[in-house]
Amino acid sequence: MVSAVVLAAGKGRRIGLRKQFARVGGLYLYELSLKVIKGAGIEDVVLVLPPGERVEVEGVKTVEGGEERMDSVYNGVKAAKGEFVLVHDSARANLSPDVLKRVLEAEGDSVVPAIPSPDSVLYDGKYAHRDRVLLVQTPQKVRRDLYLKAYLRAKGKGKVYTDEGSLLLGELGIRPVVVEGGRWNFKVTYPEDLTVLRRLKLERRVLFGYDVHRLAEGRPLYLAGVKVADDLGAVGHSDGDAILHAVADALLSFLGYGDIGTVFPDSDERWRGVRSTVFAEKVLELLRERGMAVSRLDVTVILERPKLGPFREDMIRSLSSLFSVPKEAVSLKAKSGNGLYPGRVEVFALVEVQTISGLK
Hints:
Elements: E1 2-7, E2 23-24, E3 27-28, H1 29-39, E4 45-49, E5 60-64, H2 69-79, E6 84-89, H3 97-105, E7 110-116, E8 121-123, E9 126-128, E10 134-136, E11 140-143, H4 144-157, H5 164-172, E12 177-180, H6 191-201, E13 202-217, E14 221-223, E15 226-229, E16 232-234, H7 242-255, H8 260-263, H9 277-289, E17 292-303, H10 312-322, E18 330-335, E19 344-356
Parallel strand pairs: 1-4, 1-6, 4-5, 7-12, 17-18
Antiparallel strand pairs: 2-3, 6-11, 7-10, 7-11, 8-9, 13-16, 13-19, 14-15, 17-19
């Protein structure tokens, strides 16, 4: 049996943030690695987190990290149950199933993936022979009992090792079996690495949403989650927020759920009079479950009255908050319709989403 330990306990000293909690699409970096590892059929998975951090991932055990990387690995390996343990840095978030498969299938007490260096290498002031240099990556596979033995021996001497292969070699003399790594299995270390990762992983789709509601006296009017009138509101089963309905409709259709009337039908009394912000929250949750995120909103509202100018900034802030999209990526335009659309509110929405390639 093979277990997996995913390291997400780093402090992010070089990049200036805890990179494991940076988002790519709708997923954290550590979630990208977890999806690939669980997709390979590994059931015993341990996620190592910073002390005091609490997250819940279905089917994944969590433990706290230690002072050094090898201390965090030790905590994870102790919690693992397999004869062998696969140790992976969550910062290598572009892990491919092919690299994972090569590591899993190789036999040996210590298996490491590596790639040749494409650059010349200076070591201690002298040029090393490039053809004799390999760049070591993760995931690395080790026999669990040997790792624990090597760790305790190194800890007793006050030694620190930066990966599992070097620990077993240095303390037990076990030379690693080297398999082919992946050129794009790089480690996110600096801010520009995160930019490269996003460009590699993200695909963009532009969706279209539409909604229209009749207006009636004596009702409040909500648009983008903001009340813009007290005495002339949209007729609908819920609060009739046409902007949120149009955006939600575009997203639900893209996710394969049909439209907003299918997911939140007017035959269901749960949705009678409910604020449409509830719909937005539920749709965003569905989006994140698929590893997706809204990256831009472009909304056009056709409404004769009331005038939306005084509410525009509040509406943009509300859309930014509800759909977790930067405020500067929200465009909201209001048109009067030149008297052609009296007694109704009509909304057209273009919604750009980021989807993560390579995930089921």
